Amino acid sequence: MNLDQLPAFFKAISDPTRIAILQVLGTGAYGVMELSEMLAVKQSGMSHHLKVLSQAGWVEKRREGNTIFYRRSLGDTLAMQQKLFRQLDTQPLDQAVFEQQQRISEERLQAARKFFIEHAEEFELHQERIVLFENYGPEALQLLDSLNRSPQSNVLEVGPGKGEFLAALAQRFTSVTGLDISPAMLKQADEQVHNLENVELIEGNTELLEQQGRRFDIIFYNMVLHHVPMPESEIAQCAKLLKPKGLLIVTDLCQHEQEWAREQCGDQWLGFEPDELHLWAQRHGFKHNQSRFLALRNGFQVQTQVYSAA
């Protein structure tokens, strides 16, 4: 950044509304209308604020289908942006803003739950155009075995699909839990693991497990995070659910532009940049251990990221 750009860079955060926008974006990526509703700002005014923040490099735009979402910048100009974001994250959201944020999160969650209730039977048919367990499962299990975790570990898979990975985990660990918001998807998983005594299936989300006081040694997300309404909030929940030195292992799509996946597969996000996942994990106390990438057909690429809890 040259000297001529400095005034605009700092002026962009001199407005209280723009500071509030940056604080809200700490809970996830949002569209203009969502931000307008949360902060009680007219859409035209919100668009202006976002344009100023975007031009100065404080926020980034990301297109998901026909909607443009805004998120905090992944960069760190002058080594100060991420420090400011961390400071904003220590401050509680205004109660009215928090309630609106919770409403939006619940609406996204209900949309995801509705999709999987209505499309559970044909989900695999659409999913095979992207990736099936047989495409990424062996690689993920090979990586898991290389980590040499104790067989006595208590492990969780969020969104277990048809249960293939749960069955493989049951051969390696004494206690395995599968968690899903969709009873229809859990029914499919149960057909795979109903005779395994060390596997438990739970309908609900990670907040339910936190309320129950559950703690795990390893948490897996296999091709699930792109269905989650608030991915970073999900990672924050994992920080609460993992035991000290526990592992979070995420296998998911790299960012892509295949918009049909939103309608036919219920994807809320078109994959993720590795740096995006790393930054989210770092914000919530995780250390990045290693990455693996698997090239697939139709222009999709799968990544596996391993993070350790503090």
Automatic annotation (TrEMBL):
Q: Where is the HTH arsR-type domain?
A: 1-92
Q: Which is a Pfam family this sequence falls into?
A: HTH_5
Entry-linked CDD domains: AdoMet_MTases (cd02440), HTH_ARSR (cd00090)
SMART domains reported for this sequence: HTH_ARSR
What GO MF annotations does this protein's record show? DNA-binding transcription factor activity
Q: Which PROSITE patterns match?
A: HTH_ARSR_2
At the top level of its lineage, which domain of life is listed? Bacteria
| Name of the protein | ArsR family transcriptional regulator
Q: Which organism is it from?
A: Reinekea marinisedimentorum
